[in-house]
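Same chain as my last thread, 154 residues:
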Amino acid sequence: MNKHTLRLMFFIMLGFGALVAWLAGYVSGKPAVGAPATLTVQVSGIANAKGGILASVCDKAHFLKTCNQSRMVQADAGGSVKLHFDTLRSGRFAVMVYHDENGNRQFDYTAGGMPAEGWGFSRNARGKQGPPRFEDAAIDLKPGANEMRIELVY
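reply #2:
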């Protein structure tokens, strides 16, 4: 065999090995990181119909900061809403939700530093004297459809 044939065989085997590793993760129930995923978030406990409900899906680096995957829907007084994220990638993320009652697209605080609007996180995580840690709210998005429920806290 010549040098070019050996090189071609090496790259074919490398690609086949990556495919097998991906399939093994998919079949074992572990998320194949980076595969297409969708997420439906059912938000309940909405206090009133003012403003809207904003949800963001964040990786660890963007948790409690600006996330590039955000959706907003009209609030439903005393009810619940569903938010759909259709262009996600599988992997480890946390979902942050808040009721933007005044429509300024910012999470507002009182003069004393307490939340002025309803809020919630994936896994209904709650922090101790502040927001939860990423690890407390983190979920593994699997390839395909994913669903979750978040109850707002006021």
